[in-house]
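EI: anyone free to look at a 365-residue chain?
SC: sure, send it
EI:
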Amino acid sequence: MGFKCGIVGLPNVGKSTLFNALTQTAAAQAANYPFCTIEPNVGDVAVPDPRLDILAKIAGSQEIIPTRITFVDIAGLVRGASKGEGLGNQFLANIREVDAVAHVLRCFIDDDITHVEGKIDPVSDAETVETELMLADLESLEKRIKPLEKKANSGEKEAKEQLALMMKAVTLLREGKPARRAELAPEERGPYSQLGLMTAKPVLYVCNVEEASAAAGNAISAKVEAMAKAEGARSVVISAKIEEEIAQMPDADRPDFLESLGLSEPGLNRLIRTGYELLGLLTFFTVGPKEARAWTVTKGSKGPQAAGVIHTDFEQGYIRAETIAYPDYVAGNGEAGAREAGKFRLEGKEYVVADGDVMHFRFNN
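SC: here you go
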């Protein structure tokens, strides 16, 4: 399990260029006109994690299998999309299917690339997209509320609970605030997410800057960072052009190229790491002579849930997990050394998985 991240934004902000770079394909057509991405392009990429290579080397694993992330390049949205302008209806349907939204904002000036709004103002661009999503969410909820009110008034408990959640969202949306700002009790979070609201999804603002600003950003991206901070959201600076160049380079040439730009890693790494933090995800490992493999679960997941990511039978028949923390596995140069150092643990059904755990599950067939 990784996560499905929708790349959204106005036309000509660099969405498709970024998608091509991230997936190392030319599946999305990057062109200087709106709506060049007619169908959502979907690409799976490996999540870079240097720990996996180290574990594989220690264990002599024949194969290395990273966990993966799915990126969806969604057609450009324009003002009026909630009313069907541009490719609005398609855009709105596709964005409902993702776990998080990577909102690409143009933070570079280039007279050769037109801007659909006629100006370079990423904060305004973000507000345009957010407004269209809020209007679409509000329209969706108002249609559903009327029949639900009848059921709630007749005494249906489930209808009353769902109506209360919907009204939390409606109140925010009518105030011009996204649904993700709702104050929810822990038991409400699951049902609230099932409402299918686009503005309830976590947002990561991707500041697409020119090559010279790839390391530190620029004055334009600084405005986006301030906006994200004020919202309690996340932001990351990336140069889509540079990422596209890196994607086409031989692996051996990448370190020197990155160093020449003042970068320690590709933007993909930063984007995924920030996305993981945004969604509250962590990685655990299974390691052996056959393969070293990374798996993703949400923070707070217990042993049986982690086992279930590998196979549903593992969760149902879970007995315990043989567990070694990543630093202890490395310090012991493998399982045997970790055992000798007293770092090998047997964890039961209530164990909360930690990032970097090396696990082997015992279960009943």
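EI: The CA atoms of residues 72 and 247 lie 18 Å apart.
SC: 👍
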